[in-house]
Amino acid sequence: MSNTTEIRKYKEGLRLTDLQRDLILGLMLGDGHLETQNKGHTYRLLVEQSYPFHESYAMHLYDVLKPLVLTPPKKVKNDKAIFFRTLSHQSFRFYANLFYKDGKKSVPKFIHKYLNDRVLAYWYMDDGALKGKNPSGISRTGKRLHTEGFTKLDVERLCFALNFLGIETTINKQTKVVKDLVKTYYLLNITAKGEKVLTERIKPYVIESMQYKL
């Protein structure tokens, strides 16, 4: 579609499906971002994944959101990432109001009310990982959610939400030196006990290329 009138009429008929809503919620807890070009009347979703490692996942996201996308995914950042954006649409305004405060992404106070198994799956596919090995080389049980982009309060809300859902989770504080400045980050550690609950809940929704994270 290249005609502005055609695009406007097309957007008027768009309605988000339940799958698209769950995907958007999961991405907003992960690496997804929304932007507006008209002072908040409509928003569009920006999706970026590493390439080629997460190309299959990016294409899955594109397939689900395809009715909302005009331009297929393209490689960016010297072919190290794959990116696409949706149309600007008023349906995204709900998520912008939910996740943005003073222009910065944050976690809603009652985020636990919005989480279901499929939302958890998209969040985990986006930002989750196995814990790997400890400094002694011994494999550790449990999973991790990389929440470094959120504040301590945000991560505390997410930790509460997961525990509320029966997924035993703790907060791991880390410090890193970035450009001679010491910065503090907070990650979510899902315990061995919590891992079993999480895996059981999200496994039906984790796509094949992301099964390695389970």
Description:
The chain is α+β, with helices and mostly antiparallel strands. The protein has 2 domains: 1-101, Homing endonucleases (Endonuclease I-creI), CATH 3.10.28; 106-214, Roll (Endonuclease I-creI). The chain has 7 helices and 10 strands. It has helices spanning 4-12, 18-29, 55-65, 93-99, 117-127, 152-164, 192-202; strands spanning 33-35, 44-50, 74-76, 81-85, 100-101, 104-105, 128-130, 143-145, 169-178, 181-190. Strands 1-2-4-3 form a 4-stranded antiparallel β-sheet, with helices on one face. A 4-stranded antiparallel β-sheet has the order 7-8-10-9. Strands 5-6 form a two-stranded antiparallel sheet. The mean pLDDT is 93.
CATH architecture of the largest domain: Roll
Task: Classify the secondary structure makeup into a structural class.
Answer: alpha+beta
Tally of distinct domains: 2
Shape: globular
Q: Radius of gyration from the CA trace?
A: 18 Å
Number of extended strands: 10
Q: For this structure, what is the CATH class of the largest domain?
A: Alpha Beta
Helix proportion: 25-40%
| SS strand fraction | 15-25%
Low-confidence stretches: none
In order across it, which strands form the biggest sheet? 1-2-4-3
- What distance lies between the first and last C-alpha atoms, to the nearest angstrom? 40 Å
What is the name of the CATH superfamily of the largest domain?
Answer: Homing endonucleases
Number of distinct helices: 7
- Assembly state here? single chain
Mean pLDDT: 93
CATH level-3 fold name of the largest domain: Endonuclease I-creI
Q: Spell out the helices and strands N to C.
A: HHEEHEEHEEHEEHEEH
Main beta sheet: 4 strands, antiparallel
